[in-house]
Amino acid sequence: MRLPAHGCFLSSPIYRGIIMSTIAENQDAILKLLKESFAGRVGFPWKEPEDKYLHGIRVAKLGLHLRDIIYPNQKDILCEDTFVVASYFHDICNGQDNHETAGADYAVKLLAPYCSKQELSEVHRLIARHDSRVEKNKSILPEDLKLLQDADILDHIGSYSIWATFSEFAYHHKTPYDYAIQFTDGTFDRFAERFRKKINYPESLAIYEEKISFEIEFAERMLRELNGQPR
Question: According to the model, what pLDDT value does residue 24 have?
Answer without folding.
Answer: 94
